[in-house]
């Protein structure tokens, strides 16, 4: 069969059919399995990696003071509200003294009675002393009379005996005074003890701090050791942070930290690792560390607020590095698609340090200046034809 | 000898070409329908490919993690790693849910949120390749999204109560239902799915500690006992296992099934689950429609060729009158029919290729399907022309002179 002689009609038919066939061929070559895969290229470059760790934690107070009574009792009044700033020694609240005030009044009366007893004993001593002096004077006078032979021996003896009785009376009075004074001391000490007990019912702030909890209201009964008011020292806020155990080898005290609070995510606060807890969490597979703020932000972060912590580990010397998007897993090996003349070829590599921005140091397998596939539109096969583009089609910027 | 068919086509080429194009659009729809069916099957296959796993370890007696819910303790992978033949084992969670960019609820997308262990490169479960950005490096609040979600690099998306920054984009990472995947760190995904993440555990500890029932003054051991009782492992949906080169998947699977008493599926079994159980009904639905569409197309092709032939019955009568052999007339009709089919096929294939990317779900136009389609089109055209040829040969030459 011969092709018809070209004429106007044949040309018109061809002008419609030929573009159609060409379009079909073009589509087969550009969108089918024969089409080259668009890829972008990354060049292995020497780069200093600053690895970093990322963890999350909550704001906690280093010191938390739980103020409560030492004996069971009823709360009489609570003087502070949550959020109040208090200073050391300030009255926070008071327990109900029950009968303590009355016992103090009784002790006061007993004290006054003891004081009166002491005064009475003193008066008795004065009295006894006066009697003794008089008796002594009588003895001396009758002894002179005896020498003058105007008084009998018998009379003098009687005066001497009176003086001895007076002496004994003084001793008795002095002993009474001592007893009364000791009694006064005892009563005073007892009064003091009651006053101490009374003072112990007053709940005082041990430090300057912030009231974070008011656990019992007036009228409620609390047991010994149960907190009525909780204080924290706001100057000692820190972050109880948790880091995935995977890749947290460099975690140690003193590392610089950047802190972002959940309530203020765009604001970066400075801090540092205060200590790494010796005990890791076995269930959640995390390490724990305490992060201290360099300067406390204003307003104060809330206790228990979520915080993101990024730790910068020491920067390492430059080494060949690649973005981690270039690394792929193939046939049980980690590697990259190297771009050689014949097309992409898979090359196994070893990786070193990595940072949070997605850079990975290449331990072996590549050298600086090697060109590798960074992004591809489809999975690659060895020898698959590729087309190098600036960005993979369809990616929204 | 001149080509009778060519001359005839040239005589009324406009009608011929436009008939072919109309036929082509019909063929294009049929090819697209085949592409939709293939795309559905491919979505399931690509899900397995992208997971990069040789074995899926799931809850006993479930068809998890894609076809049925499955829940495993997340420390089981350690035991699986010790088995001979196992190279890698990684926890993974899958949850299909609505994901929306922060502050732009209108661009909400249905997506399959995949929780993977961050920091690794191409471990099982991770996206195989990226088209922009980087892989997950932080343990929390980062996401790698599929292109078809429409999310941009650097954008923040909300999944449950947390915001995630899109740090990387990938392509053709879809669930078996065709929903695009969003990869987030495992611990965040566990929180999104089970709400029993580390935060929850620690908060539960606090909660217990402030409860005076458990935290009794003078009896600190009560609190410790209660905390110990509350400490339980969190869950994942599956453990993806990659085997050593040369390890026998069936043997390792049998080991895990026997000694760990867990459900295990090899790639072939998982493929069977996805194809035969998960997408079976909808795929059969599409396939049924494809069959009907093919039959309708074939019928229409036959009618067109038959009417085209009937349209020039007078000319055929003249040909017979001047003594043209039957063979020549039959060849003319056959050539025209096949030509029509070829034009239709080229137009249809081109049209299908052009409109395939516009479909919201993946349309896979396989070259083998195209070849098969071409063969079927030519066959149908040849068959259809048989009727036309039969009519043409029966025509009475007298009709040419108006008899």
UniProtKB/TrEMBL annotation, chain A:
Family classification: Belongs to the membrane fusion protein (MFP) (TC 8.A.1) family.
Pfam families given in the database record: BSH_RND
Keyword terms, alphabetized: Coiled coil
GO molecular function terms attached to this record: efflux transmembrane transporter activity
GO cellular component term of the entry, any: efflux pump complex
Protein's name according to its UniProt entry: Efflux RND transporter periplasmic adaptor subunit
Coiled coil residues, start to end: 163-197
PANTHER family associated with the record: HLYD FAMILY OF SECRETION PROTEINS, MULTIDRUG RESISTANCE PROTEIN MDTA
Organism for this UniProt entry: Thiohalocapsa marina
Keyword Coiled coil annotated: yes
Keyword Coiled coil: yes
Multidrug resistance protein MdtA-like barrel-sandwich hybrid domain ranges (all copies): 67-230
Signal peptide range: none
Source organism, top-level taxon: Bacteria
InterPro entries hit by this protein: MdtA-like_BSH (IPR058625), RND_pump_MFP (IPR006143)
From TrEMBL, chain B:
Domain MacB-like periplasmic core intervals: 22-258
Location(s) in or outside the cell: Cell membrane
InterPro entries listed in its UniProt record: ABC-4/HrtB_transporter, ABC3_permease_C, MacB_PCD
Keywords: Cell membrane, Membrane, Transmembrane, Transmembrane helix, Transport
Residues covered by the ABC3 transporter permease C-terminal domain: 287-397
Cellular compartments per GO CC: plasma membrane
Primary site of residence: membrane
Regions crossing the membrane: 16-37, 286-308, 329-358, 370-389
A Pfam family it matches: FtsX
Domain of life: Bacteria
Membrane topology: Multi-pass membrane protein
Protein name: FtsX-like permease family protein
């Amino acid at each position: 069969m011969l092709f018809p002689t070209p004429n106007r009609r044949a040309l018109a038919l061809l002008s419609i059919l030929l573009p159609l066939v060409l379009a079909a061929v073009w589509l087969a070559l550009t969108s089918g399995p024969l089409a080259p895969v668009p890829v972008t290229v990354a060049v292995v470059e020497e780069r200093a990696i600053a690895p970093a760790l990322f963890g999350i934690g909550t704001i906690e107070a280093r010191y938390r003071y739980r103020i409560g009574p030492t004996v069971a009792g009823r709360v009489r009044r609570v003087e502070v509200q949550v959020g109040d700033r208090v200073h050391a020694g300030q009255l926070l609240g008071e327990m109900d003294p029950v009968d303590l005030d009355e016992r103090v009044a009784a002790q006061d009366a007993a004290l006054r009675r003891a004081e009166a007893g002491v005064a009475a004993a003193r008066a008795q001593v004065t009295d006894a002393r006066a009697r003794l002096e008089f008796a002594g004077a009588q003895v001396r006078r009758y002894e002179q009379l005896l020498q003058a032979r105007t008084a009998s021996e018998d009379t003098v003896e009687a005066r001497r005996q009176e003086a001895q009785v007076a002496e004994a009376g003084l001793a008795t009075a002095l002993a009474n005074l001592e007893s009364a004074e000791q009694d006064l001391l005892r009563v005073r000490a007892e009064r003091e003890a009651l006053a101490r007990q009374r003072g112990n019912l007053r709940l005082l702030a041990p430090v300057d701090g912030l009231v974070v909890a008011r656990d019992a209201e007036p009228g409620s009964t609390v047991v010994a050791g149960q907190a009525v008011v909780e204080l924290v020292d706001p100057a000692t806020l820190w972050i109880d942070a948790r880091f995935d155990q995977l890749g947290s080898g460099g975690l140690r005290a003193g590392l610089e930290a950047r802190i972002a609070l959940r309530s203020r995510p765009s604001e970066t606060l400075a801090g540092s690792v205060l200590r790494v807890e010796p005990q890791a969490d076995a269930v959640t597979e995390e390490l724990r560390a305490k992060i201290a703020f360099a300067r406390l932000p204003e307003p104060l972060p809330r206790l228990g607020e979520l915080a993101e912590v990024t730790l910068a580990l020491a920067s390492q010397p430059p080494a060949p590095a690649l973005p981690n998007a270039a690394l792929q897993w193939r046939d049980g090996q980690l590697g990259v698609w190297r771009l050689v003349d014949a097309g992409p070829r898979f090359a196994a590599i070893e990786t070193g340090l990595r940072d949070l921005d997605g850079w990975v140091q290449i331990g072996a397998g590549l050298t600086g200046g090697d060109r590798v596939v960074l992004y591809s539109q489809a999975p690659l096969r060895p020898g698959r034809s590729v087309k190098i583009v600036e960005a993979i089609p369809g990616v929204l910027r | 000898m001149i080509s009778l068919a060519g001359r005839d086509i040239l005589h009324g080429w406009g009608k011929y070409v436009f008939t072919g194009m109309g036929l082509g659009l019909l063929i294009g729809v049929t090819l697209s329908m085949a592409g939709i069916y293939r795309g559905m099957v491919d979505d399931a296959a690509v899900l397995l490919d992208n997971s990069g796993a040789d074995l899926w370890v799931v809850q006993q007696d479930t068809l998890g993690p894609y076809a049925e819910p499955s829940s495993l303790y997340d420390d089981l992978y350690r035991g699986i790693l010790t088995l001979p033949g196992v190279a890698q084992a990684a926890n993974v969670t899958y949850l299909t849910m609505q994901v929306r960019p922060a502050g732009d609820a209108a661009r909400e997308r249905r997506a399959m949120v995949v929780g993977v262990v961050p920091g690794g490169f191409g471990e099982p479960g991770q996206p195989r390749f990226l088209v922009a950005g980087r892989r997950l490096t932080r343990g929390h609040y980062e996401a790698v999204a599929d292109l078809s979600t429409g999310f941009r690099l650097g954008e923040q998306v909300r999944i449950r109560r947390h915001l995630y920054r899109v740090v990387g984009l990938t392509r053709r990472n879809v669930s078996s239902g065709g929903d695009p995947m969003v990869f987030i760190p495992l611990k965040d995904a566990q929180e999104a799915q089970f709400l029993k993440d580390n935060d929850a555990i620690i908060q539960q500890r606090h909660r217990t500690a402030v409860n005076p029932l458990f935290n009794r003054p003078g009896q600190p051991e009560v609190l410790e006992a209660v905390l110990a009782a509350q400490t339980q492992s969190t869950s994942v949906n599956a453990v993806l296992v990659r085997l050593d080169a040369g390890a026998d998947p069936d043997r390792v699977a049998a080991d895990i099934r026997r000694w760990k008493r867990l459900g295990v599926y090899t790639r072939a079994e998982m493929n069977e689950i996805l194809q035969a159980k998960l997408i079976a009904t909808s795929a059969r639905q599409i396939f049924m429609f494809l069959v009907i569409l093919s039959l309708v197309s074939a019928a229409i092709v036959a009618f067109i060729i038959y009417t085209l032939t009937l349209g020039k019955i007078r000319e055929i009568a003249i040909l017979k009158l001047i003594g043209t052999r039957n063979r020549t007339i039959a060849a003319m009709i056959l050539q025209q029919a096949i030509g029509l089919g070829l034009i239709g096929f080229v137009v249809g294939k081109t049209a299908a290729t052009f409109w395939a990317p516009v479909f919201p779900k993946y349309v896979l136009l396989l070259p083998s399907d195209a070849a098969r389609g071409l063969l079927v089109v030519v066959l149908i055209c040849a068959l259809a022309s048989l009727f036309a040829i039969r009519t043409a040969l029966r025509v009475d030459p007298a009709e040419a002179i108006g008899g």
